[in-house]
Amino acid sequence: MTTFTRTVDGRELPVPGTYAIDVMHSSVAFEVKHLGFSKVRGRFTDFEGTIAVAEEPQHSSVEVTIQADSVDTAQAQRDAHLRSTDFFGVEDHPTFTFSSTGVEFGDESLQVHGDLTIHGKTRPVVLDAEFDGACPDPMGDASRPRIGFSAATTIDRYEFGITFNQPLETGALLLSKLIRVELDVQAVRR
Protein backbone atom coordinates (compact mmCIF):
# COMPACT_ATOMS: atom_id res chain seq x y z
CA MET A 1 0.00 0.00 0.00
CA THR A 2 1.20 3.54 -0.82
CA THR A 3 -0.13 6.96 0.11
CA PHE A 4 -2.05 6.80 -3.17
CA THR A 5 -3.77 3.50 -2.43
CA ARG A 6 -5.93 2.06 0.32
CA THR A 7 -7.01 -1.40 1.37
CA VAL A 8 -10.72 -2.18 1.22
CA ASP A 9 -11.81 -5.69 2.23
CA GLY A 10 -8.27 -6.95 1.68
CA ARG A 11 -8.01 -5.43 -1.82
CA GLU A 12 -5.63 -2.63 -2.79
CA LEU A 13 -7.49 0.21 -4.54
CA PRO A 14 -6.75 3.83 -5.44
CA VAL A 15 -7.65 6.64 -3.07
CA PRO A 16 -10.99 8.33 -3.82
CA GLY A 17 -11.11 11.11 -6.39
CA THR A 18 -11.84 11.90 -10.01
CA TYR A 19 -9.12 10.81 -12.41
CA ALA A 20 -8.71 11.96 -16.02
CA ILE A 21 -7.52 9.35 -18.50
CA ASP A 22 -4.06 10.16 -19.88
CA VAL A 23 -4.42 9.34 -23.58
CA MET A 24 -0.66 9.47 -24.19
CA HIS A 25 -0.16 6.58 -21.76
CA SER A 26 -3.34 4.60 -22.42
CA SER A 27 -4.69 2.40 -25.18
CA VAL A 28 -8.02 1.18 -26.49
CA ALA A 29 -7.34 -1.84 -28.69
CA PHE A 30 -9.35 -4.56 -30.41
CA GLU A 31 -8.90 -7.79 -32.30
CA VAL A 32 -11.18 -9.73 -34.61
CA LYS A 33 -10.77 -13.10 -36.33
CA HIS A 34 -10.25 -12.83 -40.08
CA LEU A 35 -10.90 -15.75 -42.46
CA GLY A 36 -11.71 -17.90 -39.45
CA PHE A 37 -8.10 -18.48 -38.45
CA SER A 38 -6.03 -15.28 -38.15
CA LYS A 39 -6.48 -12.10 -36.13
CA VAL A 40 -6.55 -8.48 -37.21
CA ARG A 41 -5.67 -6.00 -34.49
CA GLY A 42 -6.36 -2.30 -34.26
CA ARG A 43 -6.68 0.58 -31.88
CA PHE A 44 -8.33 3.94 -31.42
CA THR A 45 -6.02 6.92 -31.04
CA ASP A 46 -8.47 9.64 -29.97
CA PHE A 47 -10.45 9.09 -26.77
CA GLU A 48 -11.07 10.68 -23.39
CA GLY A 49 -12.63 9.74 -20.13
CA THR A 50 -12.80 9.85 -16.37
CA ILE A 51 -12.68 7.36 -13.55
CA ALA A 52 -14.48 8.51 -10.40
CA VAL A 53 -13.22 6.42 -7.47
CA ALA A 54 -15.77 6.61 -4.64
CA GLU A 55 -15.26 6.19 -0.89
CA GLU A 56 -17.36 3.06 -1.21
CA PRO A 57 -15.66 1.43 -4.23
CA GLN A 58 -18.83 -0.20 -5.55
CA HIS A 59 -20.18 3.33 -6.19
CA SER A 60 -17.25 4.25 -8.46
CA SER A 61 -17.91 5.12 -12.09
CA VAL A 62 -16.24 5.26 -15.50
CA GLU A 63 -17.10 7.41 -18.52
CA VAL A 64 -15.26 7.07 -21.85
CA THR A 65 -15.79 8.63 -25.29
CA ILE A 66 -13.94 7.29 -28.32
CA GLN A 67 -13.74 9.10 -31.66
CA ALA A 68 -14.72 6.39 -34.15
CA ASP A 69 -12.73 7.92 -37.01
CA SER A 70 -9.50 7.48 -35.03
CA VAL A 71 -9.47 3.75 -35.82
CA ASP A 72 -5.98 2.57 -36.77
CA THR A 73 -5.16 -0.93 -38.00
CA ALA A 74 -1.90 0.17 -39.68
CA GLN A 75 -3.54 -0.27 -43.10
CA ALA A 76 -5.12 2.87 -44.61
CA GLN A 77 -7.49 1.08 -47.01
CA ARG A 78 -8.89 -1.13 -44.24
CA ASP A 79 -9.21 1.87 -41.89
CA ALA A 80 -11.22 3.75 -44.55
CA HIS A 81 -13.50 0.71 -44.92
CA LEU A 82 -13.99 0.54 -41.14
CA ARG A 83 -15.03 4.23 -41.13
CA SER A 84 -17.59 3.59 -43.89
CA THR A 85 -21.26 2.67 -43.51
CA ASP A 86 -20.30 -1.02 -43.80
CA PHE A 87 -18.91 -0.75 -40.27
CA PHE A 88 -18.78 2.36 -38.04
CA GLY A 89 -20.54 4.89 -40.27
CA VAL A 90 -18.52 7.69 -38.67
CA GLU A 91 -20.38 10.49 -40.46
CA ASP A 92 -23.62 9.54 -38.70
CA HIS A 93 -22.05 7.97 -35.58
CA PRO A 94 -18.83 9.87 -34.80
CA THR A 95 -18.34 8.53 -31.27
CA PHE A 96 -18.53 5.36 -29.21
CA THR A 97 -19.34 5.82 -25.53
CA PHE A 98 -19.11 3.73 -22.39
CA SER A 99 -20.94 4.74 -19.23
CA SER A 100 -20.66 2.49 -16.21
CA THR A 101 -23.77 1.41 -14.34
CA GLY A 102 -22.08 -0.46 -11.49
CA VAL A 103 -18.89 -1.93 -10.10
CA GLU A 104 -18.81 -5.43 -8.67
CA PHE A 105 -16.05 -7.01 -6.59
CA GLY A 106 -15.52 -10.75 -6.22
CA ASP A 107 -12.84 -12.58 -4.25
CA GLU A 108 -10.34 -12.25 -7.08
CA SER A 109 -12.29 -10.21 -9.62
CA LEU A 110 -13.33 -6.68 -10.44
CA GLN A 111 -16.10 -6.14 -12.96
CA VAL A 112 -17.33 -2.85 -14.35
CA HIS A 113 -20.86 -3.07 -15.73
CA GLY A 114 -21.97 -0.43 -18.17
CA ASP A 115 -23.70 0.71 -21.32
CA LEU A 116 -21.67 0.72 -24.53
CA THR A 117 -22.97 2.74 -27.47
CA ILE A 118 -21.59 1.95 -30.92
CA HIS A 119 -23.17 2.80 -34.27
CA GLY A 120 -26.10 4.45 -32.45
CA LYS A 121 -27.03 1.28 -30.53
CA THR A 122 -26.58 0.88 -26.78
CA ARG A 123 -26.01 -2.51 -25.20
CA PRO A 124 -24.96 -3.63 -21.71
CA VAL A 125 -21.40 -4.94 -21.38
CA VAL A 126 -19.21 -6.18 -18.54
CA LEU A 127 -15.53 -5.27 -18.40
CA ASP A 128 -13.28 -7.67 -16.51
CA ALA A 129 -10.92 -5.19 -14.87
CA GLU A 130 -7.82 -5.09 -12.74
CA PHE A 131 -6.28 -2.29 -10.68
CA ASP A 132 -2.64 -2.25 -11.78
CA GLY A 133 -1.21 0.23 -9.25
CA ALA A 134 -0.64 3.85 -8.30
CA CYS A 135 2.28 6.24 -7.92
CA PRO A 136 3.01 9.97 -7.67
CA ASP A 137 2.60 11.67 -11.06
CA PRO A 138 6.20 11.93 -12.34
CA MET A 139 5.08 14.11 -15.25
CA GLY A 140 3.33 16.80 -13.24
CA ASP A 141 2.35 17.47 -9.66
CA ALA A 142 3.90 14.66 -7.57
CA SER A 143 1.22 15.16 -4.91
CA ARG A 144 -1.40 13.90 -7.37
CA PRO A 145 -1.68 10.16 -7.87
CA ARG A 146 -1.41 8.45 -11.24
CA ILE A 147 -3.34 5.16 -11.36
CA GLY A 148 -3.45 2.25 -13.75
CA PHE A 149 -6.24 -0.12 -14.74
CA SER A 150 -6.56 -2.79 -17.39
CA ALA A 151 -9.86 -4.17 -18.63
CA ALA A 152 -11.19 -6.45 -21.34
CA THR A 153 -14.45 -7.68 -22.78
CA THR A 154 -15.78 -9.44 -25.85
CA ILE A 155 -18.66 -7.87 -27.77
CA ASP A 156 -20.88 -9.13 -30.56
CA ARG A 157 -20.70 -6.50 -33.30
CA TYR A 158 -23.99 -7.75 -34.79
CA GLU A 159 -25.75 -6.50 -31.62
CA PHE A 160 -24.58 -3.00 -32.57
CA GLY A 161 -25.86 -3.28 -36.15
CA ILE A 162 -22.39 -3.85 -37.64
CA THR A 163 -23.19 -6.89 -39.76
CA PHE A 164 -20.97 -6.58 -42.84
CA ASN A 165 -19.60 -10.03 -43.69
CA GLN A 166 -18.93 -12.46 -46.49
CA PRO A 167 -19.24 -16.27 -46.44
CA LEU A 168 -16.16 -18.18 -47.58
CA GLU A 169 -15.85 -21.47 -49.47
CA THR A 170 -14.50 -23.04 -46.27
CA GLY A 171 -17.79 -22.38 -44.51
CA ALA A 172 -16.20 -19.70 -42.32
CA LEU A 173 -17.04 -16.02 -42.49
CA LEU A 174 -14.67 -13.29 -43.62
CA LEU A 175 -14.90 -11.70 -40.15
CA SER A 176 -15.94 -13.04 -36.79
CA LYS A 177 -18.94 -11.34 -35.27
CA LEU A 178 -17.09 -11.35 -31.92
CA ILE A 179 -14.58 -8.60 -31.15
CA ARG A 180 -12.16 -8.65 -28.24
CA VAL A 181 -11.68 -5.18 -26.71
CA GLU A 182 -8.76 -4.42 -24.37
CA LEU A 183 -8.07 -1.24 -22.44
CA ASP A 184 -4.88 -0.27 -20.65
CA VAL A 185 -5.41 3.00 -18.85
CA GLN A 186 -3.36 5.47 -16.87
CA ALA A 187 -5.27 8.31 -15.24
CA VAL A 188 -4.28 11.30 -13.11
CA ARG A 189 -6.32 12.70 -10.23
CA ARG A 190 -7.72 16.13 -11.01
From TrEMBL:
InterPro entries: Lipid/polyisoprenoid-bd_YceI, TTHA0802/YceI-like_sf. Residues 18-188 form the Lipid/polyisoprenoid-binding YceI-like domain. The lineage of its organism: Bacteria, Bacillati, Actinomycetota, Actinomycetes, Propionibacteriales. This is Polyisoprenoid-binding protein YceI. Gene3D superfamilies: Lipid/polyisoprenoid-binding, YceI-like (2.40.128.110). Belongs to the UPF0312 family. It holds the Pfam family YceI. Signal peptide: none annotated.
